Amino acid sequence: MKAIIPAAGYAERMYPLTLNTPKGLLFINGKPMISHIIEKIVKIKDVDEIVIVTNNLFYFQFLEWKKNFVCGVPIVISNDKTNNSGERLGAIGDLNFVLEQKQIDGDIIMVNSDNLFSFDLTEMRKDFTKKQHVIGLYDSKDLAIARQMGSPKIDEGGRVIFFKEKDRNASSTLISIGIYFFSNARK
Asked: What does the pLDDT look like over 150-179, one tens digit per residue?
């Protein structure tokens, strides 16, 4: 299983904090946010490589971070070659970029680089073994919050049948938490 961490956004809403630092490399509780995420990912025993996809602006910062981070799983820093938010590929575009660049055809876990969570990913991995695709969702219990996030619509069988980012018409308080398991990604 490959882990893909999209980190190629420009986080303009967080300026000036992210003007020269990507969100994933902002320090939270004494270390970069991405370090916390990877520590969770490596607990999934079949993850054999982690790919962080970033952009021209932050590529060398991620290379520097990687020099000082050890986790026991190979980490690849991939540059999507974008230079500003107008060129950005978005999370799905960066996922596709990595899948094509590395010719990944097996299972993947994708975790957004600005995502802090306290639970163990191995339980989601167990669900993924049964279901082949898993999307991490959370009930925000607040429609205003849900309308600012990724909003899914779920059918009676618990499957996501619609998904929209920042849906002003969202009618559910469920939100995506930026964690996805996909089976055989290129098939």
From this structure: 788 888 887 888 888 888 888 888 888 888
Output the CA–CA distances (angstroms, integers) from residue 166 to 93, 120, 144, 145, in the order listed: 17, 27, 10, 9
- Read off the pTM: 0.86
What single letter denotes the amino acid at residue 83?
N
**DSSP 8-state secondary structure symbol assigned to residue 25:** G
The whole-number pLDDT of residue 18 equals: 64
As a whole number of angstroms, the longest Cα–Cα distance in the chain is: 47
Other beta carbons less than 10 A from residue 2's beta carbon: 22
CA 47 to chain centre: 15
Quote the CA–CA distance of 168 and 128 in Å, as a whole number.
Answer: 30
Give the chain's residues under pLDDT 70.
12, 14, 17-19, 185-187
